[in-house]
Amino acid sequence: MLDKNKALVVFSGGQDSSTCLFWALKHFNEVHTVTFSYGQRHALETEMARRLAEKAGVDFHLMDIPLIGSLGSNSLTDASAVMDEKKPEGTFPNTFVPGRNLFFLGIAAVYAREHGIKNIITGVSETDFSGYPDCRDSFIRSLNVTLNLAMDEQFVIHTPLMWLDKAETWALADSLGVMDIIRNETLTCYNGIPGDGCGHCPSCRLRRAGLEKYLARRHDYDDSTQAIEMIQE
Ligand code: ZN
């Protein structure tokens, strides 16, 4: 029997999944995290995740699945590859790890079942620049059905960021009262630099552009309340 008050966050220690962690803490009584080590270039990523989970007072589980990174070639696990600056025409950036969210969510669901957790939370977003197919809403809905059929359970996959752009994701962090934590204690940079990062990789540029857009908007109001209203609940 799955407990509807329990949630599992697929957690990388980056801006998106960290925002989802605090979103989960607001909505569920008992929150777990699972972090995957799959041969990322930067070991600091999983270490940042562990520290943040500790700070948030939630369970942290690191799972080692190097197979995923070694199956195909991509620039997140291959240190010699140069990252695509933008999405190449008709294909995906070479930061795409084929099947990553399929594996992650599949493993997360097994973990959730073993721990009686009904809710699974992932920080995927369709509005991300990359257009990764396994970040799309249709994929997540389809997988949710598949996982339920696979284990004869009624999991609910939540995607709080699915329709938010980066500015709205910052607004969500602000509304949850964790703006500074997300800004300073998460790692999104492809060059492995925490917080505001290297400033020039595609991930840093996306993160910073969103932050600037949100802060400009926030500045227009006396407090953050109205700026946050742009997030659709
Ligand atoms: Zn960077």
How would you describe what is shown here?
There is one protein chain. By secondary structure, the chain is an alpha/beta fold. The chain has a domain at 3-165: Rossmann fold, CATH 3.40.50.620. It is 44% helix and 13% strand. It is built from 9 helices and 5 strands, in the order βαβαβααβαβαααα. The protein has helices spanning 15-27, 44-56, 66-71, 100-114, 137-151, 166-175, 179-185, 202-219, 224-228, and strands spanning 3-10, 30-37, 59-64, 117-121, 156-158. The chain has a 5-stranded parallel β-sheet with strand order 3-2-1-4-5, with helices on both faces. The radius of gyration is 17 Å and the shape is globular. The mean pLDDT is 88. Zinc ion binds at residues 189-191, 193, 197-198, 201, 203-204.
Nutshell version of this structure?
The chain is an alpha/beta fold. It has helices at about 15-25, 45-55, 65-70, 100-115, 135-150, 165-175, 180-185, 200-220, 225-230; strands spanning about 5-10, 30-35, 60-65, 115-120, 155-160. Helix 1 (about 15-25) packs parallel to helix 6 and helix 6 (about 165-175) packs across helix 8.
